[in-house]
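Q: Here's a chain of 333 amino acids. Please give me its 3D structure as tokens.
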Amino acid sequence: MKTTLKTFLLFSCIGLILSCNNNKKDNQSATTDKEITDTTQAINDTSNVAVLIFNSDGGTDYVIDKIDNIYRKTKSGLEYKYIKSGKSEIYPKVGDVVYFDMTYSTIKDSLVFDTRMIDADFKMRITPPSHSGGCFEEALMIMRAGDSAAFKIDAKNFLNYTQDKVNIPSYIKRGDKFIFRIKMKKIVDGSDYVKQNAETYQYYISQEASLIERYVLNINFPRKVTKSGLNIFTISKGTGKKPQKNNLVTIEYTAGFIDGSVFDSTIERKKPFRFVVGNNEVIDGLEEAVKMMNVGDHCLTIIPFRIAYGEEKNGVVAPFSTLVFEIELLDVE
């Protein structure tokens, strides 16, 4: 194998740097790659290099590959690569709320998801690791505020365990990995987050209760209110099957806000919507409503923000939005 001077120099420099970093916590950049916020531009240098990687478990790997393909491993097997280090020394723990920008794509660089398409202030609460072998939750917990990093995570495990999906897209094969590019913006202690948001949360609950009661004054259909706060009005009654867990249901719906504006409709798209009951494929309020219906039922539902999208922004749905769904249950399989 022909080895260039560039390869020898890079091998020596990177090997020495990583050897020194192995005596510190795993919080230093393994390469000098570009900032993670540029999620589409590839590394310009496409030549192979030889690198001795010191992993967090004390083991080493000798790798000959492109810089962009070289990752280290945690003891669990999570593949990671720091791109930029922040100044903080605090790592998030289970229960904390983290604010971050993230994309993930296939190995062939087809973009699957970008948080900035949903919310410029995307956040989530850290939960315990969902599976062994290197998971998304672990990736978040080894990042400090200001860090940017890339991770390789098994695609099927991520969809099955982290996202609780049962139906995996056909293009995802066994052994496929997603490439995650994450920029950690802020970490808020879980208890502090609850305290900071308790007053705001209670305010919106109070405001919502008044809005719902004013809204229902003009509805003359039979009303039922569940423990979760879901309001369901029966417009017409069917006599068909009632959905159970794991049933595939088909519905027509028109979705809007409590001010009367509409943001989505299967009728306008001329394509009914299908989902599996119990698979967390829809918001809690919609699933609860459908489970109360029989095939042929036509209902109007008011879904409080607590069982809709909560305090999160989702597309055109603003935080703390009360939703109104008109639903017809067409089929249960």
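Q: Can you summarize the key feature?
A: The helical segments are 5-21, 136-141, 155-162, 190-215, 266-269, 284-291.
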